[in-house]
Amino acid sequence: MRKLTILCLAGLLMLAFSSAYAQDKIDFKASGWIDAQTLWYRNVSPGNPAGGIYNTVAATDKYGGGAYNRTNSFLESRTRLRFDWAYGKSINGVMLFEMDAGPWGNSPGGSAAKISERNTYGYWSADRAAVEIKTIYVDWGVPAIPVPINMRVGLQPLSIRNNLLVYTDGMGITAGINLDPVMIQPLWFKAVEGNYWTSDDVDVYGLVANAKLGTMTVGGYGLYYNMNSYPLYNPAPTIGTNQSDMFWFGIYADGKAGPVNLNFDFIYDRGSVERKGFNLFFPEVKYRGWATRIALDFPMEQVNFGFVGVYASGADTQKTSSTGAPGSLTSTGVASSKVDSYVTPPGSEAGTNFGESVVFYNSWINRGSSGIATSNNYNSMCRGPIGGTWLAKLYASIKPTPWYKVTFQGMYIGDTTKHGNTFGTAYASINPALGFRDDKSIGFEFDLIQEIQIYKNLKYVIGAGYLFAGKGLDYGYISGPPFPGVAFNSKPKDPWQITTNLTYNF
């Protein structure tokens, strides 16, 4: 009788649990987008050039047959495909794939500049292995806890103020702790594992907190990169030569202040890069940079006016080399010792997310595929989209119909680097040993952007911009015969770009 009772109870428990779990089912969803875009420009950098502390104006190979002062044009595409597997409201699995074709008709096959056949689905005859894994992670709510906590585990975005500081994808664990109105987000990412038996890892630790205060969201964060190997991916025998501890601290505010939409950021970076082991010939390089941005929007029914102001500290070329690494030499031939330029973490794609112009900075129209200041360095720290520059921008948007919007914008861009220029390489005199010229003007840029909603899910955007180049973009070069070793300067033709994007969302 006792056995029968126990069996009946066990059966009832099984039925109870099975009925409880049967209430939930796995919901599958697929979404994504496909685009096609054109780029036509002069003296504007394509793609994501590696960004040191300094980056010269686009392809300044004046006498080597490069793109300097020449017109460039090509087409490219990107596709993203996302799969979601949601189990009730508590669990969701995400896989995001990315496929690139850029430029259309490029030569087939992998190379040192490409990872396998990445970016190749636009090659003639197609059939390329061009599918890239963007993210794979699981979101899940922690059960039986009075405070709502959500966990995310796997290959996921590391995104903190991604137009200024950091956006990248990596293996990590993040959490969201909801203490309404406060949200706290601790995070940890493994950037480099290195050898299993020694301490050459790179770990990222961070904490983000924000609170909803009326119509404003106010927040702050701290980010720590413990880099026991720096640069992150250097080939032997230089791998692990340097190490670095870097911190980024920031505050921000987003929301409405009366009739005005407000966005504000302030970021400070601090740390150092040093050679492993004691070595007098490779002194430590200290990093001390900062940046701030404010954006004000004045929206009306069909018209919107706005202002954007940005300032980012610049380096001193007499103290900072082009890479900022220990043992590297500055323009005056001494070892690099300090980087006062604002810098972003290794691997950050903030350079392609800034999106404040069509020519000088990258453009949101073509997903950040161009721009003189576009700078992503997947190996080491760099000045990001704004280091060494400042910006004052005015714009106005008009939307006369639901399907058409036009934006006019004008801006002045200045240089904050000392004893040299952030982008230009002009020399101070005919003797190159005397260093670079220090100019403050990068120039005035004027843009026109048109957005056309063809169908609900199909949009076409056209952007055109012209930069009246200042002296901060002048190009310096060392001549050969009949005047070998003499420094000359050349003013590039004004940069301009016309770019378009057609996107289908599904």
Notes on the structure:
This protein has 506 residues and is mainly beta. The protein has helices spanning 2-22, 350-353; strands spanning 26-42, 71-87, 91-101, 131-141, 149-160, 166-179, 182-192, 202-213, 216-230, 242-257, 260-275, 285-299, 303-312, 338-339, 389-401, 404-415, 441-455, 458-469, 475-478, 487-490, 496-505. Residues 1-23 and 58-64 have low confidence and may be disordered. It has an 18-stranded antiparallel barrel. It has a two-stranded antiparallel ribbon with strand order 19-20. The N and C termini lie far apart (61 Å). It has a single domain, classed as Porin (Beta Barrel), CATH 2.40.160.
Task: Compose a concise summary of this entry.
The chain has helices at residues 2-22, 350-353; strands at residues 26-42, 71-87, 91-101, 131-141, 149-160, 166-179, 182-192, 202-213, 216-230, 242-257, 260-275, 285-299, 303-312, 338-339, 389-401, 404-415, 441-455, 458-469, 475-478, 487-490, 496-505.
Secondary structure layout plus pairing:
Blueprint: H1 2-22, E1 26-42, E2 71-87, E3 91-101, E4 131-141, E5 149-160, E6 166-179, E7 182-192, E8 202-213, E9 216-230, E10 242-257, E11 260-275, E12 285-299, E13 303-312, E14 338-339, H2 350-353, E15 389-401, E16 404-415, E17 441-455, E18 458-469, E19 475-478, E20 487-490, E21 496-505
Parallel strand pairs: 12-14
Antiparallel strand pairs: 1-2, 1-21, 2-3, 3-4, 4-5, 5-6, 6-7, 7-8, 8-9, 9-10, 10-11, 11-12, 12-13, 13-15, 15-16, 16-17, 17-18, 18-21, 19-20
Rg: 26 Å
Largest sheet data: 18 strands, antiparallel, barrel
Element string (H = helix, E = strand): HEEEEEEEEEEEEEEHEEEEEEE
Q: Any low-confidence stretches, pLDDT <50, length ≥5?
A: 1-23, 58-64
Shape: globular
Terminal CA distance reads: 61 Å
Q: Mean of the pLDDT scores?
A: 87
Give the helix level as a range of percent. under 10%
CATH classification class: Mainly Beta
Note the beta-strand portion.
Answer: over 45%
How many domains would you count in the coordinates? 1
